[in-house]
């Protein structure tokens, strides 16, 4: 299984990584004492690389994303993006949250144009780009609709357009498809891959779905809870573009099984088995 | 909408018809309960005089309401952004609200005289509270993710206020305004009751002292019309300013369904 060069992604050795997370820890103070959300996170992400970050609820994967986005301060260690250490939202950032966070009072187009307004740029130069992005994600004809006229999948596409509009060097996605039904989720996985292959951005993709993590990622970062730390980083050497059928291949199955084994050994998946009876986990 | 207007009109018509019939049936004296026909004739006899007094009351009401809206929203923004203002101004407002503000009307007459300013002041004070409370609630209900989104775009606090908090707060603010506009009218009338030479409150007080019950009723009817008009003005403004809000969407969807 060799990494196919057709991805357009350039794997950079950790020394020259675009994003470097060095010994990052995050501790929350609470009345019952300090709670460690993250501990000793070391991760380098190459420019144009798609990294899936996978873990159960409470493993700190979203906290790590919020630290990268500059929404949380790290308690220890540092985050270097594009050679610059920072402690606030970096420049050239695109963020997609689990909820689409569209503003009800704006049309689809105006929602996508929000970053242009916040940056006080001349909108006329960007509107064409916004329309192109909407077209790329199959939303032609919906530019003047309001968010509440759209389905959940369409809304999340709009929020992806908004994140991509200013051509971010780093795209952070926090379980963006977690609230969607399985079929819409598959569809958006394919579209995200297509968009990313067209213009390879550095993507930090948080998910709790093993399949989604393997399907989309160049690498899968597996995290475990309390405190959140990295258990293993798995290279996904499947060729791109990947179609949904790839999930039926032995290679894909082996990776999913391996990751599931990690969660089982952490004791994370016991809870799921407990609720549904003993038969579920085994293969 | 058309249907609703018609049904409201029918209900009002039936109410007045029943009132007319009751008065005639029991042969009640005019100074006790005049029939609606007599009230309408009274207004019809001196339309200009009634119009002047109605407009005066509307004028003080709108001034009081406008001031309450302006200062109320500014105060709410301050309260939401400043812990200090929340602890002082907000706490003070909440404790002041437990005082029936009509009781303060005589004080304003002493301070500001018997002219328009004292009426506006009472109207303003009585309307202020609901504007502040609902504006604070609305500004605080902003989606935390949306505020984070602005941060990740390196937007300022002012941009977060203007692009996220304020538009999101509008439906709450309009709910507050609908209460406030009715209260502003109450305040204006209360001010006129205490001391005045103009307005429907003045007409009611002087007519009452002379047992001109028809005139009292005429003023009450005009107050009802004015109050309803003011409420629907705010309602109309809400529809124009935030047509995207859920409460309007449902009606629009029904209207679309009805048309299809």
Question: How would you describe this structure to a colleague?
Answer:
The complex is a heterodimer of chains A (283) and B (260). By secondary structure, chain A is an alpha/beta fold. Chain A has a domain at 14-92 and 215-276: Rossmann fold, CATH 3.40.50. Chain A has helices at residues 61-68, 108-112, 114-118, 124-136, 152-164, 182-198, 210-216, 250-266, 270-276; strands spanning 19-30, 33-45, 50-54, 76-81, 84-85, 93-96, 170-174, 202-207, 219-224, 229-235. In chain A, the strands form two sheets. In chain A, strands 6-7-8-3-9-10 form a six-stranded mixed beta sheet, with helices on both faces. In chain A, strand 9 (219-224) and strand 10 form a beta hairpin. In chain A, helix 7 crosses helix 8 (250-266). Chain B is mainly α and 260 residues long. Chain B has a single domain, classed as MetI-like (MetI-like fold), CATH 1.10.3720.10. Chains A and B meet through helix 3 of A and helix 7 and helix 8 of B.
Secondary structure topology:
The complex is a heterodimer of chains A (283) and B (260).
Chain A: E1 19-30, E2 33-45, E3 50-54, H1 61-68, E4 76-81, E5 84-85, E6 93-96, H2 108-112, H3 114-118, H4 124-136, H5 152-164, E7 170-174, H6 182-198, E8 202-207, H7 210-216, E9 219-224, E10 229-235, H8 250-266, H9 270-276
Parallel strand pairs in A: 3-8, 3-9, 6-7, 7-8
Antiparallel strand pairs in A: 1-2, 1-4, 4-5, 9-10
Helix pairs in contact in A: 7-8
Chain B: H1 2-26, H2 36-45, H3 47-81, H4 83-97, H5 105-112, H6 116-140, H7 144-152, H8 157-194, H9 200-209, H10 213-241, H11 246-259
Helix pairs in contact in B: 2-10, 3-4, 3-6, 3-8, 3-9, 5-6, 5-8, 6-8, 7-8, 8-9, 8-10, 9-10
């Amino acid at each position: 299984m060799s990494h196919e060069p057709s991805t357009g992604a350039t794997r950079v050795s950790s020394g020259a990584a675009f994003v470097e997370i060095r010994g990052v820890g995050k501790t929350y103070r609470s009345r019952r004492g300090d709670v460690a959300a993250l501990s000793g996170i070391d991760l380098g992400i190459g420019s144009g690389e798609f990294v899936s970050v996978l873990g159960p609820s409470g493993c700190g994967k979203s906290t790590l994303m919020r630290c990268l986005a500059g929404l949380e301060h790290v308690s220890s260690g540092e985050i270097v993006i594009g050679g610059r250490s920072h402690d606030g939202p970096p420049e050239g950032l695109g963020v997609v949250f689990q909820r689409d966070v569209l503003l009800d009072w704006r049309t689809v187009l105006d929602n996508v144009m929000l970053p242009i307004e916040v940056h006080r740029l001349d909108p006329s130069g960007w509107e064409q780009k916004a329309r192109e992005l909407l077209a790329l994600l199959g939303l032609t004809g919906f530019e003047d609709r309001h968010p509440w006229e759209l389905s959940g999948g369409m809304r999340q596409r709009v929020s992806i357009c908004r994140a991509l509009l200013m051509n971010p060097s780093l795209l952070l996605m926090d379980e963006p498809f977690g609230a969607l039904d399985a079929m819409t989720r598959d569809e958006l996985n394919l579209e995200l891959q297509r968009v990313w292959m067209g213009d390879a951005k550095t993507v930090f993709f948080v998910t709790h779905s093993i399949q989604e993590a393997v399907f989309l990622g160049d690498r899968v970062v597996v995290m475990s809870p309390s405190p959140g730390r990295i258990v293993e980083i798995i290279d996904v050497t499947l060729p791109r573009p990947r179609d949904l059928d790839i999930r039926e291949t032995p290679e894909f199955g082996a990776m999913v099984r391996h990751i599931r084994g990690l969660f089982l050994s952490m004791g994370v998946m016991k809870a799921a088995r407990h609720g549904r009876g003993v038969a579920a986990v085994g293969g | 909408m058309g249907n609703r207007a018609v049904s409201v009109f029918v209900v009002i018509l039936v109410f007045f018809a029943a009132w007319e019939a009751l008065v005639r049936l029991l042969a009640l004296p005019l100074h006790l309960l005049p029939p609606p026909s007599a009230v309408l004739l009274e207004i019809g006899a001196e339309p200009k005089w009634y119009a002047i007094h109605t407009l005066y009351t509307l004028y003080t009401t709108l001034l009081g309401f406008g001031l309450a809206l302006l200062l109320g929203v500014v105060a709410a923004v301050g309260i939401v952004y400043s812990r200090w203002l929340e602890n002082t101004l907000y706490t003070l407002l909440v404790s002041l609200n437990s005082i029936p503000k009509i009781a303060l009307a005589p004080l304003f007459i002493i301070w500001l005289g018997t002219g328009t300013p004292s009426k506006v002041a009472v109207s303003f004070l009585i309307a202020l509270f609901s504007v502040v409370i609902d504006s604070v609630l609305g500004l605080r209900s902003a989606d935390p993710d949306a505020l984070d989104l602005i941060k990740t775009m390196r937007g300022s606090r002012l941009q977060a206020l203007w692009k996220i908090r304020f538009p999101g707060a509008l439906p709450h603010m309009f709910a507050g305004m609908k209460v406030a506009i009715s209260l502003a009218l109450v305040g204006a009338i209360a001010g006129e009751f205490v001391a005045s030479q103009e307005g429907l409150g003045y007409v009611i007080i002087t007519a009452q002292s002379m047992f001109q019950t028809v005139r009292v009723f005429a003023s009450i009817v005009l107050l009802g019309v004015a109050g309803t008009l003011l409420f629907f003005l705010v309602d109309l403004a809400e529809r124009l300013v935030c047509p995207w809000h859920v409460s309007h969407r449902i009606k629009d969807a029904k209207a679309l369904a009805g048309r299809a």
